[in-house]
Amino acid sequence: QVQLVESGGGSVQAGGSLTLSCAPSGYTGTLYCMAWFRQVPGKEREGVAGINQYRNTWYVDSDKAHFTVSRDNGGNTVYLRMGNLRPDDTAVYYCAAHSYRGACSDSPDKYIYWGQGTQVTVSS
């Protein structure tokens, strides 16, 4: 069973920055698509950004322009750098991944492996 382990969440003031990281535990293959989602209470989980094995990236809408997703060379560690954070970025952020090849999606249903989530809180 692949477990994704996230780190880097926390509390920050508006305008600040955080970098989240995620890596699999107990997995030696290649995770083709890796992505970040976020969720606030009472709302559906939404995509933020993702990256595939070849470092092709996707982002969900221009409102996420202050996010940058990246991936380590040849590995399965994915990062989400969040700059100029706003209070409405407050959410639990989840790392997700799958190993099958194909277009990487912003739909949570397409992902097989998930992290436990890490809280990001932005105060005004």
Question: What features would you highlight for this structure?
Answer:
48% strand, globular, 124 residues, mainly beta
SSE diagram, text form:
Layout: E1 3-7, E2 10-13, E3 18-25, E4 33-39, E5 46-52, E6 57-59, E7 67-71, E8 78-82, E9 91-98, E10 113-114, E11 118-123
Could you please describe the fold and organization of this structure?
The protein is 0% helix and 48% strand. The mean pLDDT is 94. It has 124 residues and is mostly beta strands. It is globular and about 40 Å long. It has strands at 3-7, 10-13, 18-25, 33-39, 46-52, 57-59, 67-71, 78-82, 91-98, 113-114, 118-123.
Quick gist of this model?
The protein is an all-beta fold and 124 residues long. Helix content is 0%, strand content 48%.
Q: Specify Rg, calculated over alpha carbons.
A: 14 Å
Helix and strand composition category: mainly beta
Order of helices and strands: EEEEEEEEEEE
Tally of helical runs: 0
Mean pLDDT: 94
Instruction: Give the low-confidence spans.
Output: none
> What is the 3D shape?
globular
The rounded distance between the terminal residues' Cα atoms is 40 Å
Number-wise, the strands total 11
Percent helix: under 10%
Please outline the major beta sheet.
7 strands, mixed
How much strand?
A: over 45%
